[in-house]
Amino acid sequence: MQTAIDTIWVEDLDGNNVELLSLYNDQNLLLLLYNNQCLGCTGRAIPLAYKFQNMFQHIKVLGIHSNFRSEQVTKADITSIFTTKTLPFPIYIDDNHKVYDRFKSEGTPQWLLISKDKTLYRSIFGSQANAENRLLYALESLTTEV
């Protein structure tokens, strides 16, 4: 069952509030909910998101760092996990894990595939082979409906 979504509020890396569905209107979105401290996220999920970004031109990949701690995460914290110190795709902050909770995430990484008509097409947990296969199938299915 697909669920309609009206808004997704996050912060950009400069601390400004951003509503993603308005900013990326009429685009299929692959949201990666992750945390910098999660080795599966930084070692497998982020490279996988980059791979999907290159494979599927009709999908906009966005990273969302879910903040589970009370301390603030900075732009430097986010870019520190990348060897080039540049972002492979836009990354936002989910302060106090509100987006994470809203979508009943099972852990990090959590993938949210949102169709351009603003419905949650798939929600998939993990970065191992089974999750990768399920994501690939969902991405292929969504892009054939374009």
Automatic annotation (TrEMBL):
Entry superkingdom: Bacteria
InterPro entries recorded: AhpC/TSA, Thioredoxin-like_sf
Gene Ontology molecular-function annotations: antioxidant activity; oxidoreductase activity
Alkyl hydroperoxide reductase subunit C/ Thiol specific antioxidant domain mapped to chain residues: 10-120
Matching Pfam families: AhpC-TSA
Protein name: Alkyl hydroperoxide reductase subunit C/ Thiol specific antioxidant domain-containing protein
